[in-house]
Amino acid sequence: RIIDIATLTGACVVALGHVNGGMMGTDQKTMDRIRANCRITGEGLWQLPLDDEYRKALKSEIADIKNVGDRWAGAITAAKFLQEFVEDTPWVHLDIAGMDVDNEGRPFAGKGATGFGIRTLVSLLE
After folding, report:
1. What is the pLDDT of residues 111-122, one digit of tens each?
2. How does pLDDT run across 51-94, given as a tens digit for each residue?
C-alpha cells in the first residue's frame, strides 16, 4: 500500500480552495478510513474522481506518456500521471496544495506552515 502526500497542483487549489485538500486513488477502503480520520483531526479532504477517461489527457505522440494534461481537471490528470507508476499497488494520493500554509490560522495549526495531513495520517496509523 502506498499513501503519498504532496503539494502537487495549483489546480487542486482552484477546485477546492483553501478549505479541503484533494484525495484520489485506487484503494477505496483506505480512502474511506482516511475520511473517517479527517472527522477526528479536523483536516478536510475531498475525494475527486479518478476515472480512466482522464488518462486520455496524458497521451503523447512522441512519448509513452506526458506529465501535463490539458487545461481541464489538472489535479485529477496529475494524479493519473502518478497512478502510472504504482502499477497494481493499492494507492492513495493526497494533493494538499492550498492547505500547506495558512496566513490566518486554523483550529489545528497557527499561522504559517500547517503540517496538513500529518495528523490524519498519524490517526490512521494508530
Report:
1. 888 889 999 999
2. 999 999 999 999 999 998 888 999 999 999 999 999 999 999 99
Q: Give the helix ranges, DSSP H, for the chain.
A: 10-16, 28-41, 74-83, 118-125
* Reported pTM: 0.91
To 5 degrees, how large is the angle CA 46–CA 47–CA 51? 150
User: Cα(29)–Cα(71) distance, rounded to whole angstroms?
Assistant: 30
- Residues 3 and 94 sit within 8 Å (Cβ to Cβ): yes
What length does the chain have?
126
Going along the chain from its start, the domains and CATH numbers come out as 2-125 (3.40.630.10)
